[in-house]
Structures are given as structure tokens and as C-alpha cells.
Amino acid sequence: MLLPSENEYIVVGDVHGCIDELKSLLQKQGFETDEQEKLQITPENEHKSIILLGDFIDKGSEEKLAETIEFIHKNYQHLNSQRKRFYLIEGNHEDMVHRYIKNDPTLVINERTLRNKEKYYNTVALLEKKPYLKELFLELYTFCDVWYKYSYNENFSVTLTHAPCEEQYLTQNNAEGQKKMIKCISRSKNPTLPLDELIPYTHQEAKQNQHYHVFGHLSQPSIRQYRNKICIDTSAIYGNTLSCVIIKNNQLSFDDVPFEAKQKKGSQTYNTLFDF
Ligand SMILES: [Mn+2]
């Protein structure tokens, strides 16, 4: 999906129910939220678009997850009413929660998947309790795309996906390509392996050029960049920061806001990307 290059883009990493932080980050980037929870379009921000890089659900508290879904749904409609200025990228959490609530027949329900549902996909229980939220989520899911690409000129482009993936799969619309752009090999299933060994292609394929690949998915202590590969999941729900990359013409810049402690933070050990 190609993005019009005349607009500016604010691309936000894994939100995971950090709705207060999302609002703060967007406010810092020129989008105020009004009393109806609508992002205000002004002459100063009307050329800007917002892109969520996937994984806006799960891990947060039920209250914050509900707020997140409501906020994104409301503003998806509101911001896109005149021209498209709000985009959603599908993350592995949207994918899995969708599979659970739609009773995907390819999802084997056994002890492990039931445990995972509680442990990693806590949005499922919330949606099962609140049918109106389930409807909002199902609609949001249909709005998600797997990748976007911004192309400024032959020397500068930015490809956006939730997960890092081998270059051969980037922007491929077949089933295998889509799967790879949504999720890479699991860290939790390979806890002893350093991240750079688990997904070696990320640094091996990195090039010293301005055809960037920006992704999230791998919670990090800070934005991690090696050549043209950039990870912007800075672990908001783990008490760190929520980050964004701003694409303007042929320039990238970054911004972030701290975790606001309005919900319980998760705990995890960072496994750092580009740790060499
Ligand atoms: Mn993810």
C-alpha cells in the first residue's frame, strides 16, 4: 500500500493499551484531543497523517485496552472523514486476537493455546465480556493493512511493517509474505538466543542507504537503528517510552513520551537488537 508522499507521517510503535501515552505523543506532535476524545484537525497539522505500527492491543489493563480500542475506532472514522489521515498496520496481537474471537478453525485449542490466551492475549477475555468492543475491534481489524510504503524519490523510501522480516518478503502480498511481515520467529520460545542470532537477516541485509525499513514488535530499551533498519518499539507497556518516527519529505526524525504509570506496567527482560 503506497502512501502519498506529499503528506507528513507520524508512525507510532507498539501501543499495547498505552492510550494515555498515545494521546500525549500525538499532542506533542500537534494533535490535541477534545472533550469527545476526537483528535483536532487544525491548519498546523492538516498535512500530517498518523500510522499505528501494529500491536495496539493486549498486555495493558482491561480498562486501558477498552479506551484504546474506542479511541482508535472513533478517530479512524473522524480523521479519515475528508481524506485518509489515519492508517493501521496489523501486528501479531491483532492477528491472534482476531483468530481467537472468530474461532479460527486452524487455531488448535489445547492447554497451551488456552494458557497463551490468558497470558499474552488478554484482549480476548475483554472482547468476550463486552460485545460492543468486540464489534469495534472486528471493524478495526478490517481496516488494518500489513505494510505501507512511502517513496519520496529514487533515493529515499520508508517501508513500514509490524515485524522485521527478510527483504524478499517485504511488500509481498501473498500469504507467506503477509505472515512474515506480521510476526517473526518467537523470542519467548527461544529465550537463550541473542536477538541478532535469532533474526540475523535484520543486520545482515542492512544497507547504508536511505531505503529504510521501520518496524516494531521487538520491545527494546530505546530506538534501535543499524544502517537502514530501524526498530521503534520502545517498550511503553513495560514502563519505558512510547516512540514514533516522523517522515517528512526525505527526512526521518524521532520523538517519544514516557510511560505515565496510569496502569500497571508489564515486566520483561530486554533482549537488545543490533547489540554488537
Ligand atoms: Mn508484536
UniProtKB/TrEMBL annotation:
GO cellular component: cytoplasm
Boundaries of every Calcineurin-like phosphoesterase domain copy: 10-129
Gene3D superfamilies the UniProt entry points to: 3.60.21.10
InterPro entries noted in UniProt: Ap4A_hydrolase, Calcineurin-like_PHP, Metallo-depent_PP-like
Pfam families, sorted: Metallophos
GO molecular function: phosphatase activity
Record protein name field: Calcineurin-like phosphoesterase domain-containing protein
Protein source organism: uncultured Sulfurovum sp
